[in-house]
Automatic annotation (TrEMBL), chains A, B:
Cofactor(s) essential for the protein: Mg(2+)
Gene3D superfamilies referenced in this protein's UniProt entry, alphabetically: Farnesyl Diphosphate Synthase
Key word Transferase present: yes
Keywords associated with the record: Magnesium, Metal-binding, Transferase
Gene Ontology molecular function, alphabetical: metal ion binding; prenyltransferase activity
Name used for this protein in its record: Farnesyl-diphosphate synthase /geranylgeranyl-diphosphate synthase
Organism whose genome encodes this protein: Natrinema salifodinae
Family membership: Belongs to the FPP/GGPP synthase family.
Taxonomic placement: Archaea, Methanobacteriati, Methanobacteriota, Stenosarchaea group, Halobacteria
SUPFAM superfamilies attached to this UniProt entry: Terpenoid synthases
Domain of life (superkingdom): Archaea
GO BP annotations listed: isoprenoid biosynthetic process
Pfam families with a match to the protein in the record: polyprenyl_synt
Length: 350, 350
């Protein structure tokens, strides 16, 4: 039996290997060209880092479906299940990362967040106009890149349909998120619906797109979509927990910023139901003014109310459910990695 | 022979008839649903009016290609040239109008314009967050709507490719436009390149999409794309002329706002080459502070430099070139209408 540490190290190594390939592919798909300032701004966050979890889910799902050994297949020329013409799976992987980056740029404007991945947000590093336009450029580029996979036309059409409806749902989720900031009666179910739309759908798209592009059956596509929704919701819940528990430096932004900005999380929604005066846990509305001691006190109160455990338990249940759905896949190393990735999403420390 | 007035009235009637059908289709393709505020904001400018010129070009081109009598075919179920399954041409028409509306919402934020079509801009009527998100929602909705045309998969793929690259070019053009505001050495050619990307490509897409969706040959697709580029550039040049010559009330925004905001137009680019001190034609940078008399004086100076005639001549040449390209189409009533539409774009008074 392997130790938990060894298992986590193996997952991280698998993520790292795929991340490097994705990092190489991003400048190939999104070269800096005229007008340079626009493309530099579009690439700014992509180049600043990121774990590339969604592309990793996508590439690993492709390997599991094709039943090939880890990293043995050429992602740029991946053989479909019916052995029709090769599919550029890396293009699909970059496409979802580009969508993710577009949403981060626009979200940072909307949430007035100054820092992202330890660097200034795009609207801070450049300006509001450039940030809006950089996001808009990435938006259409994601579609252009997905159009280059070379898959059969009916599969490309289905893949683009998933991409477009995913983007619409992300907007709907972000809209709900903004509305929730002014509400004090959001239920856990409403919160989870919002998280599904805002965050989980892009994991769902990442998991089901290889099945679509490689020509898998509808049952497989649906099961993988469900896996993505489950682990995506778990990921967001864990993100909300980490926002309270990880030092600012490691987080790349102020710890507790969600609390300061009155963002709803599963933790605050639960705490409010337990009678905690969530709106007054932190006195200030300004992330630059809050102290570490204030955040510590707030976290202690949320722990006493059982809200952090509640969030952890919900995330664990979602991960277990997601892993079960993977039984549609052949039993292989890549499927095991998808299970371990799911575990990692809620065990990760940042 | 018909009089110019009778000809213009006939074009306007043809535009009106198609506009009404497009206006009926917009709420069908973009119903107000949860989250309501987001969809209301997304529909706000679309519902405020607009001439629907791009959808009219698209629908009329479809009629010309199919060689059917004006308004005789059912746009929702249009027969392709090879008589394969019916195509929802109205969905394609709404899709380009939705793209247009998304760009207006984001452009108004970037240009800090308060008024559009005589009503407050979306970021004024709602707020910045909602306006960004409404634009983002329309962006993906345009792709979703185009995916619903029911055309053959390879044609849908090509249509989506045109839509995606068009959006990318619009962003590139808008980026150049913003950059040009701080430059005093923009040449007429550079200006026309910017206009091609920012404005003309959506006319080009509108003209060539029916050819793609109905299965026309590449020569026809290319010629129609060229027609759209030509009339689209002419349209923007005329818009720049109208910004100086049409009363604010009729324009739906302050007359001369381009001059006040130091926006480059073909007129100012030409005038600068003639030695006019364009940057000091108007003293203020604030559209709310400028007087009608100041605008009148500026226009008189631009007229003396020959810059307004130069813009009018350039637009006329482009329209003539665009009309020539239509010879790939069968000689029919719809083709005549496309010629008259081209003339209308530069003869219109607002």
């Amino acid at each position: 039996m392997t130790s938990p540490e060894a298992r986590e190290e193996a997952v991280l190594e698998a993520v790292r290997q795929r991340r490097e390939l994705v990092n190489d592919a991003i400048p190939e798909e999104l070269p800096i060209k005229r007008p340079e300032r626009l493309y530099e701004a579009s690439r700014y966050l992509l180049d600043a880092g990121g774990k590339r979890l969604r592309p990793t889910v996508l590439l690993t799902t492709a390997e599991a479906l094709a039943d090939v050994e880890s990293l043995s297949a050429e992602y740029r020329s991946f053989t479909p299940l019916d052995e029709s013409g090769p599919v550029d799976m890396m293009a699909a992987a970059v496409s979802v990362e580009v969508i993710q980056s577009f949403t981060l740029i626009h979200d940072d404007i909307m949430d007035d967040d100054d820092l992202r991945r330890g660097v200034p947000a795009v609207h801070e590093e450049y300006d509001l106009e450039t940030a809006i336009l950089a996001g808009d450029t990435l938006y259409s580029k994601a579609f252009e890149i997905m159009l280059e996979t070379g898959a059969e036309p009916d599969r490309i059409v289905e893949a683009l349909d998933v991409l477009a409806t995913t983007c619409t749902k992300i907007c709907e989720g972000q809209s709900l998120d903004v509305t929730f900031e002014e509400q004090t009666d959001v239920s856990p179910d409403e919160y989870l619906e919002m998280v599904e739309q805002k965050t989980a759908v892009l994991y769902a798209a990442s998991a089901c797109l290889p099945a679509i592009l490689l020509g898998a059956d509808d049952e497989t596509i649906d099961a993988l979509y469900g896996y993505g929704l489950d682990i995506g919701r778990a990921f967001q819940i864990q993100d909300d927990v980490l926002d309270l528990t990880v030092p600012s430096e490691q987080l790349g932004k102020q710890r507790g910023s969600d609390l300061v900005e009155n963002k709803q999380t599963l933790i605050t929604v639960h705490a409010r139901e337990q009678g905690v005066d969530v709106d007054n846990l932190v006195d200030t509305d300004d992330v630059d003014a809050v102290t570490e001691a204030e955040i510590d006190d707030a976290v202690a109160e949320l722990e006493t109310a059982g809200s952090i455990s509640y969030a952890n338990d919900t995330a664990s249940d979602l991960v277990a459910q997601g892993k079960n759905r993977l039984e549609v896949l052949p039993d292989n190393e890549a499927r095991d990695l998808l299970c371990e990735l799911a575990d990692y999403l809620i065990e990760r420390g940042y």
